[in-house]
Design goal:
Length: 316
């Protein structure tokens, strides 16, 4: 199987898992204790595809840290599936809130995605596949990475119907959103240093969320709130990057970029469109979000060196 076709199948596997995550809570409102609901079946089918792809890669001679990272993620994912089954059986609807089983599932999926992204970059550096194909696939995988990192915030983006089940304070949403934006935007810009890459990833994620709401409706239950501020934050990040991050002004550059990421959050906090546009965001929480966005930007660079050491070995 050609390498690019192999990665397209990986997108199918991750896409099924993403759809399952997006619709899992709604199905549990209909059948609380039923583990074999449609989102779980879609996720399990994606896991089966992932297993087949890992076997194909190993039989094709693929070795190294990238594959081992993906294998570790897959094994953790299987543990998470078993743990999720136990939680759904014992706690029912409470299982949609934060719990150890979902943390295990998220960790497994993240390691699996990162392992495949690393192998993709490695293949491109060894001329196994064209660089242009690599960049396009990297941006799509980055959309999936952003989606899995955003999973903890889905709890607060659910409609008011489950407000009583939310165990997180409102300030956490802005804090974690800032961390995700700073980390993913900086990582994407480093992996695909072309104008428009960050906006493409943010826009792609929003399109996927809207597509799921349209093609996989929640029925009589309200759809989740969409984080539209991601697009405006991506535009500000991309436009300001040449003026701050490329001039190596140290801490000032990081804070300046983080401050720009906070502008959309501050605007919706002032407009006060909750609900249904976004979860509750207070101006006080933006102080914490500014710090978390700065940390995310700072962490992206060493993270790239650890997980994607071959990222800059090909001509961009």
């Amino acid at each position: 199987m050609k390498r690019d076709v192999l990665y397209y199948w990986w997108l199918v596997a991750f896409g099924l898992a993403s759809i399952a995550v997006a619709r899992d809570p709604w199905f549990h409102f209909r059948s609380v204790d039923d583990f074999f609901v449609l989102p779980h079946l879609a996720s399990e089918f994606g896991v089966l595809i992932a297993l087949c792809l890992l076997v194909i890669m190993m039989r094709g001679g693929t070795r190294g840290r990238a594959l081992y990272t993906a294998l570790a993620g897959f094994c953790i994912l299987l543990i998470g599936v078993a743990a999720d089954r136990i939680y759904h059986g014992s706690t029912g609807i409470a299982a949609i809130a934060w719990n150890p089983a979902h943390f295990i599932l998220s960790l497994g999926m993240l390691l699996l995605v990162l392992g495949i992204m690393r192998q993709l970059i490695k293949d491109a550096s060894y001329a196994v596949m064209p660089v242009r194909s690599r960049d396009g696939l990297l941006m799509v995988f980055s959309i999936i990475l952003l989606g899995f990192l955003w999973i903890p915030l889905l709890q607060q983006e659910l409609p008011v119907i489950i407000a009583d089940l939310t165990i997180l304070p409102n300030w956490f949403y802005a804090l974690y959103a800032g961390l995700c934006m700073g980390f993913v935007f900086k990582l994407v810009h480093d992996l695909v240093p072309r104008y428009g890459s960050v906006m493409s990833v943010a826009g792609g994620y929003l399109v996927c969320r809207l597509a799921v709401d349209f093609f996989v409706p929640a029925g009589e239950l309200a759809v989740s709130m969409i984080p539209y501020f991601l697009m405006l934050s991506a535009v500000l990040f991309e436009c300001a990057y040449p003026f701050f991050m490329k001039r190596e002004k140290g801490v000032f550059s990081v804070y300046a970029m983080a401050l720009l990421l906070m502008v959309p959050l501050a605007s919706i906090a002032l407009i006060d469109t909750y609900p249904p546009i976004h979860p509750a965001i207070s101006l006080a929480s933006l102080v914490w979000a500014l710090g978390s966005a700065s940390i995310g930007i700072i962490l992206a660079r060493p993270f790239q060196f650890v997980f994607f050491p071959h990222a800059n070995e090909t001509e961009l």
